[in-house]
Specification:
single chain; about 525 residues; alpha/beta; Aldehyde Dehydrogenase, Chain A, domain 2; 2 domains; seven-stranded mixed beta sheet; five-stranded mixed beta sheet; 21 strands; about 20% strand; globular; binds NADP nicotinamide-adenine-dinucleotide phosphate
């Protein structure tokens, strides 16, 4: 079945009467703002209907076909060349080197998922052979994972490439065999459209139905809410604010058929400075922390927004080193005026708080964020919940605990986090072990002697964590594990070989990993 329909909905460029974009001309991006088209309710509906209609054909493509599709998207993104980087620089304020790195990460993760499809174990195939002589007899049972259905993906403001149109959520949904209806972030519409066109070209090259992908552009909560409420949509991937994520969770839960929402929202990423490490390397850790905090103007979900240590001279040395580095830093342009204003409000609230002292504050300017460092006591942090919230940007709160027990109490009172970091030396192992028991319950990724910014895209990565870090702490949105969000298991009982999907039949010509009668193998 070939489905024709809207490949892109909303955006710049020439649009024909049938709704397709007819041609792409980079020059058309120059007068960007006035050209943008806001989707209306009928177009959202059409994009979702087309995604629903494309699902069976797409999920029944071979793993190799979808791997080729992912590889082709990567090639097409590279093929856009410098126009993509320049457009993203203009729209995000992020520097060239960061965006070139992010493009590398984006194509790298598309290829990583292509590799996962070719390797085959993602289907988690299990075969329990029939036991006809058992009392009662056991039927033949075979299980595999299949795509959940069309996925609504919300692009993030802070990764215009790697968490956006062809970012991790889209790559993992496509790998799972799920069409994607993508809500572009209004902070980078031109970048979104360039990448969307690369995805559409890849669909055409691979002969896949147009309904596999649609881009929705426009601002206003109505677009996202209509998208999540649409009956064809079966799951949601979101990265953004806690309020936005929770609003979409409420919409998904109120549907006649509720659906899962995988929202990555809010995390302050505590860094624990243990005594021996602080004594040996306090100044060095302070400088490393300042670099991590200000990277990308602090606009990373893994930004170290909270630091805990036992009060004393080594902690003072850390504070001086970090404050000196941050005080000398320059304010820089943030992703959107809204994010800058929200950051400046958050910093002002902390600066005015009666239990908080300001250690460093680089000046702000309109649309810019300057680094800020604050300090409070363990007792004040434990008593005052308003100190626990995320201030999205280069701001961090240092908490001086009276002893190791109070540090553990602070760890225990934290909300769910994407990451926690322990700076430690050999002599700190007992305290680290004590903290670890708590952190395993609170956090998706626990690091030793590093900084949380810089998220590797790999097989073992967990970029997730209990609420409010994410809406579902059983998942990761980075790395190959992200595919599991968009899969569900189906068991085939006593099914004739001819009806079984190829991965479940007795011969295993593709040699994929299968668990047969409990034993993992490729037979
Ligand atoms: P956002 O305001 O949550 O927006 C993200 C996306 O969700 C946008 O497409 C937005 O649509 C949509 N949206 C927001 N609220 C909605 C609602 N109530 N109903 C339906 N759709 C909704 O996030 P942002 O613009 O990226 O930044 C705002 C704040 O989010 C930051 O200041 C920061 O606190 C946080 N943030 C956190 C992370 C993280 O990884 N933890 C990353 C980025 C941002 P529109 O097009 O209408 O805006």
């Amino acid at each position: 079945m070939t489905i024709t329909g809207l490949a892109l909905i909303g955006g710049v460029g020439e649009r024909g009467n049938d709704g397709f974009f007819k041609a792409y001309d980079p020059a058309a991006l120059a007068p960007l703002e006035p050209c943008f088209h806001m989707v209306d309710a009928a177009q959202i509906d059409r994009a979702c209907e087309l995604a629903g209609a494309a699902f069976d054909q797409f999920r029944n493509t071979s793993d190799e076909q979808r791997a080729l599709f992912l590889d082709t998207i990567a090639e097409q993104i590279i093929g856009i060349g410098d126009a993509l980087i320049e457009r993203a620089m203009l729209e995000s304020g992020l520097p060239r080197a960061r965006l070139e790195g992010e493009r590398g990460r984006t194509v790298g993760q598309l290829r990583l998922f292509a590799g996962l499809l070719r390797e085959g174990s993602w289907r988690d195939v299990r075969i329990d052979s029939a036991l006809p002589d058992r009392v009662p007899p056991r039927p033949d049972m075979r299980m595999r994972l299949i795509g959940i259905g069309p996925v609504a993906v919300f692009a993030a403001s802070n990764f215009p490439l790697a968490f956006s149109v062809a970012g991790g959520d889209t790559a993992s949904a496509f790998a799972a065999g799920c069409p994607v209806v993508l809500k572009a972030h209004s902070a980078h519409p031109g970048t979104s459209e360039l990448v969307a066109r690369a995805v559409v070209r890849a669909l055409e090259i691979c002969g896949l139905p147009a309904g596999v992908f649609a881009l929705l552009t426009g601002t206003g909560n109505g677009i996202g809410q209509a998208l999540v409420a649409h009956p064809a949509i079966q799951a949601v991937g979101f990265t953004g604010s806690r309020s936005g994520g929770q609003a979409l969770m409420a919409v998904a839960a109120a549907r006649p058929q509720p659906i899962p929402v995988y929202a990555e929202m809010s995390s302050i990423n505590p860094v624990f400075l243990l005594p021996r490490a602080l004594e040996q390397r306090g100044e060095e850790i302070g400088a490393g922390f300042a670099a991590s905090l200000t990277m990308g103007v602090g606009q990373f979900c893994t930004n170290p927004g909270l630091v805990l240590a036992v009060d004393g001279a080594p902690f003072e040395r850390f504070c001086s080193s970090a404050a000196a580095a941050l005080g000398a830093s320059q304010a820089a342009t943030m992703l959107t005026p809204g994010i800058a204003a929200s950051y400046q409000r958050g910093v002002a609230l902390l600066a005015a708080h009666q239990s908080v002292a300001t250690l460093a504050q680089a000046g702000h300017a309109e649309g810019k964020g300057g680094a800020a460092l604050f300090r409070t006591s363990g007792a004040a942090f434990l008593a005052q919940h308003e100190l626990h919230g995320e201030v999205f940007g280069p701001a961090s709160l240092l908490v001086a605990c009276k002893d190791a027990t109070e540090m553990c109490q602070v760890a225990e009172c934290l909300e769910g986090q994407l990451t926690a970091t322990i700076q430690m030396d050999d002599g700190d192992i007992d305290q680290a072990r004590r903290l670890l028991t708590t952190l395993e319950r609170k956090v998706g990724r626990i690091l030793v002697n590093g900084f949380p910014t810089g998220v590797e895209v790999s097989t073992a990565m967990v970029h997730g964590g209990p609420f409010p870090a994410t809406s579902d702490g059983r998942s990761t949105s980075v790395g190959t594990g992200a595919i599991n969000r968009f899969l569900r298991p189906v068991c085939y009982q006593n099914m004739p070989q001819a009806l079984l999907p190829e991965s479940l039949r007795d011969p295993n010509p593709a040699g994929i990993w299968r668990r047969r009668d409990g034993a993992l193998g490729k037979e």
